[in-house]
Amino acid sequence: MMDVNQIREYLPHRYPFLLVDRVVELTEGESIVAYKNVTVNEPFFNGHFPEQPIMPGVLILEAMAQAAGILGFKTMNKTPQDGSMYYFVGSDKLRFKQPVVPGDKLDLFAKVITVKRGIWKFEVRAEVDGKVVSSATILCADR
Asked: How many structural domains are present in the chain?
């Protein structure tokens, strides 16, 4: 549904911090399904950990937040080029269930829970091969 060039219109992130490769489903105001292909060439694997590469949990959380950000921007019909910024401002109930390693396809899911005065609350999760690797409730703010 959205390739990386279209994603770049809705997220200000660029290499090496753009963590969404493709959007496969998006229902504005409701939910998004996206993914990131995790490769051994990711720069964070040089130090995390060289002998046993594992994707840092904070980057899994960031990938989920970026997917939610795309959903928010598309729903508001805004882009960073319009001067709108979408900040990740908090998380609750964050859990990491299993490691993400090179070769994994990290499936990203986000669902809108509430929107009040520019603060969006999302239920997010990441899966590999249909198994949940991380989940959280996150807050994002439109500024």
From this structure: 1
